[in-house]
Design a protein that fits this description.
By secondary structure, the chain is an alpha/beta fold. Strands 3-2-4-1-5-8-9 form a seven-stranded mixed beta sheet. Strands 6-7 form a two-stranded antiparallel ribbon. A hairpin with an 8-residue loop joins strand 8 and strand 9. Helix 5 runs parallel beside helix 6. The radius of gyration is 15 Å and the shape is globular. The N and C termini lie far apart (about 30 Å).
């Protein structure tokens, strides 16, 4: 599916997504994509409630790919991947978004990290996943809010030695 907006954001569904991004992009459906989140009954129940009435699915990467690739490209889908590895697996599985946007990425508890921007923490493993994602040729940017200018993400990793 081309044209779907992919955002990497480990906070998943929150005000920036449900208010700013959905309005700017004309989003009509949210799809949260992460194996652990999809296996968590509580998160599967609560995340759609946080979406402020927007139809929302919480799926594993494999189920998200099956859903997205089985149907003709539906406009207005925003895919929220919890981690860069999730986004890479989507692309590796055949999803072809126009761009992948790195949003909010809080530090993972107990893992050493580097702050790449004021709202994006990156571990060494995540840096590898971001680079693999960028190597697919799909533009990888960071754009916290729709009114912000998108910034290429890999040079930010380079500047931090990741």
């Amino acid at each position: 599916m081309a044209g779907a907006h992919v955002r990497i954001d480990n906070r998943l569904i929150h005000g920036q997504v449900t208010v700013a991004w959905t309005r700017r992009l004309g989003v009509r459906r949210l799809l949260v994509c992460n194996d652990d989140v999809a296996a968590d009954d509580l998160q599967r129940m609560l995340l759609p409630q946080a979406a402020r009435g927007l139809p929302t699915d919480v799926l594993s990467v494999a189920d998200a790919l099956a859903d997205l690739l089985a149907a003709p490209a539906a406009p207005g889908v925003m895919i929220i991947a919890q981690h860069p590895e999730d986004a890479f697996r989507l692309v590796e599985g055949g999803l072809r978004p126009e761009v992948v946007n790195v949003g909010n990425v809080a530090p993972r508890p107990g893992a050493p990290f580097t702050m790449v921007t004021r709202s994006i923490a990156v571990t060494a493993d995540e840096a590898d996943a971001y680079r693999k994602l960028a190597a697919t040729g799909i533009p990888l940017v960071t754009q916290l809010m729709p009114q912000d200018k998108p910034t290429e993400f890999v040079p930010l990793l380079d500047r931090k030695g990741l």
